[in-house]
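User: Quick one: structure for sequence A, then sequence B.

Assistant: Sequence A:
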Amino acid sequence: MAEEHRIVAVGLLTEQDLAVLGQGFRRLYRLKGTHDFDALLSAIDDADRALGSDTSRDG
């Protein structure tokens, strides 16, 4: 993958977050409906622990 196309961040943002980021924010994908974000964040925490880098929200 070319350097200019690599993903450097993924985030869950509110409308207020987007307003603060302003025009400098280049791309977003809006999610529709309800999503189980707690399960997603938990899975990310589990994967971090499995890799030995505990960056969980709780500790």
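Sequence B:
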Amino acid sequence: MDRPRQPRLRARYWAEAVVRLELRAAHEEFCARRQDAVLRIVLRGRRQGVFRSDVDLEGVALRLTAFTDGVAVQVRTGAPRMTVSVLRELLIDFVRRALVAQPEMRKAAAVGYSRS
């Protein structure tokens, strides 16, 4: 199975940033942009009533990006129990537990969302 280039490049860049100090600032900026992207997605989901309104947005963005980095390293290094399918299941479970609003919360949010 051919895997997308982006995760491979990101892993290679991460490894280089560990040993080359001149790359760390750019790597930190990349991580901050990823967390900001996750934050925007969560905010949109909150406005649409799909995601809960009581979560720490920055905390979720930090945990989700750290989680994806960790499992991606395991997939890329061939950890026997960490496949792309397992990664996907873990991410879906994380999002459901950390973000997804319960049905009654969705109904209430939809009423408020349709009026604004």
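The chain is about 75% helix and 0% strand. The helical segments are 5-19, 24-47, 57-76, 84-98, 103-115.

User: Thanks, that's what I needed.
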